Fold:
Amino acid sequence: MRLNDEERAMLAGEQGEPRRWAISHQVGVGEFFDAADLVPVSQAHIMADTESLGEAGIGFLETLSGAPEAQRRVRVPTLTDPRGLDFSVYKRLGQSEAMAVLEARAIAALKAFGVLMTDTCINYQTIMPAVRGDHVAYGDTGVVIYSNSVFGARSNFEGGPSALAAGLTGRTPRYGYHLDKRRRATRRFRLGTGPRDLSEWGALGGIVGRACGSYWEVPLIEGIETVPGSDVLKHFGAALASYGSVALFHMPGITAEAATADAAIEATHIGRAEIDAFVAAYAQPGDKVDVVVFAAPQLSLVEMQEVADALGGRQVHPQTTLLVATSPEIKHAADRMGLTARMEAAGAVVAAGICFYQSYAGELAAANGWRRLLTNSAKLVNIIGGYGYKPSLASLERCIEAAVAGKMV
Amino acid sequence: MPILLHCHPGVGPEVTGEALVARDNFSARYDLDRKAGIFSRPSHALAGHSYNGRILVLDQAKGGVATAWMLHEMKARNIVPLALIFNRVNPILAQGAAFGNVTMVDRFDGDVTALFRTGDRLRIDPAAGTVEILNRDSA
Structure:
């Protein structure tokens, strides 16, 4: 890889151990992907929940953040993805004191780097959206795919260590979606039906994702008759990234790039039957619902209002937990506007700064006896099975009706 | 002569060990019980199999950025695959293997899930970009 004088100085350790580690990691990853050089980034976004960090990862952060302040401060605004635990609700959810101790240690280490503790996977709705051509180093696959596709930003999936490295050096290796040649559509899909709600848009993302099945595929979706809103594209993109490891999609006339489809690529039809079959595949035997989850991605203020309105003053069934996860910014807004109070009065747990699946989901299942899970997030039904849950996908309204009844209705 | 296969230069140290092969994908967060060291996602082709100390040979890396931290954490507890071989990885796995110093290679001529068989004894040299199948003869 080609390095300039400053980058070589970092690599030689002249700017301290954190930047030496960071650029050395970046050169290793960059060479693996044949990157020619490093590209400056305007923001970084770190996935660093304690479940995935573990003691080893927290120890790593603590050691690195022990360097003198001038050596450890990040050089570009660096945000955090959702955390493992919300200190205001963890006891109610049955999370342990040991988890809270790990969380506090990780937060202290990240703050020492000058990281902004945004604890969100919807920073593109709430903090600072990227702009077209903006090179960024985002963690969280949902943030990357939304920013790349809707805004025309340029990011690869940056795991926690790589996003921290990007914050420390202000750069990232120039490979993958930083390059023009990678951003052209490689697959084409034609939509023959309109998804009816967020869960079905997520199902569509899941169908396209399964068909692509690779980080290096770029799907283009035609036949969308009305412009989807931000929450729709959020759920669609998050599911597409989750099922397919996909980081960029195009919708001609809607997203930032690819105004037209390449006629040489044959289109795959997706209709009502495909969406219905996708949802039906998650149907589970038995009526009882243990936990209803609205998360993955965290809820926008608009979704918070939709949940509060759908509850309509009714009580969540005593044998069922209703969990709502949003970002700290949206939680503050929802508090101020009375939405949190309405949901909590119904018996819901409203958590901020977590996203459920990054919050020791396996331990939560064991502590609360949860198995049957209902959600409107296709991303969540895809990923939560490995933690021992039996997940099903339904619209927000059906999820709320089930939470109130304690069973599928 | 053992069979010698070439790939793109990878990351991590040179290792020798036994292959566990499946035509499926990989995510450390969603497919594994990392405490027990087994594949836990019921729909995974290797569900119930132990991965500890094995060379995993799988098709692709799936979504989920957590794997970038998790290989490092798994290695610290010593319940970790010896190495990873894929047809094509995503950045997360490359970053995670580089961070955790876990051996990983990809980009072969041909499908790795057909080139390698469960039980094969493999020597991986990531710097050179080569994998030898020690128990099979090239002749």
